Amino acid sequence: MTVNSHTLLPPWGSIALWEEAGDSINYLVNIYKDRLTMAFNQAEQVKGHLKSLFHLLDELCFMTCLWCPEPCCSRATVWADFKDLLFFCLAGEKIPPAQLIQQPADSCRYLGKRGCTLPRIKRPWICTLYLCPPQNRILRRSSSGVQEKFSQAVQAIKTGRSRMEDEFIRITSF
Ligand code: SF4
Ligand code: SF4
Description:
Elements: H1 15-31, H2 37-64, H3 82-90, E1 111-112, E2 115-116, H4 125-129, H5 133-141, H6 144-172
Antiparallel strand pairs: 1-2
The structure holds iron/sulfur cluster (2 copies).
């Protein structure tokens, strides 16, 4: 799943920059916490919608990943973005220890022998959103209720993340 140009560098690729980014966001969240109620609420809603997807994602993974000839995470060029860090801070989730990759050619540092070593809630949204073709085929064969629930949750997460970021910027910019 290559979603970014290889000419781009991941933000906060070094441990120092990553920690500085997390500390800065946490600092602002703490300073403005009394005025960030809406952003906290959005993050909490996003968290709920994310959790509502995890069982289905675990099932899809169980049906496909064990026999995968070329695991997507070993060739992915993806990273956590600002919304991901902000979500962790607002949702009370400890930020993972480092960015996924430092250079576009790197493999994700969280890829272990049995798949991703991060709990689903701590993975960047792009990792949760991505369904490979076999998983998409299985989802398309599932009931319309399951598909509808999946697409509604995805849309709610996208909207919630944008609102959360907009509100955070609005409050902390003045
Ligand atoms: S999500 Fe798809 S491509 Fe990625 S490891 Fe699982 S089966 Fe393979
Ligand atoms: S964080 Fe996990 S799911 Fe995302 S690319 Fe890395 S190993 Fe894969």
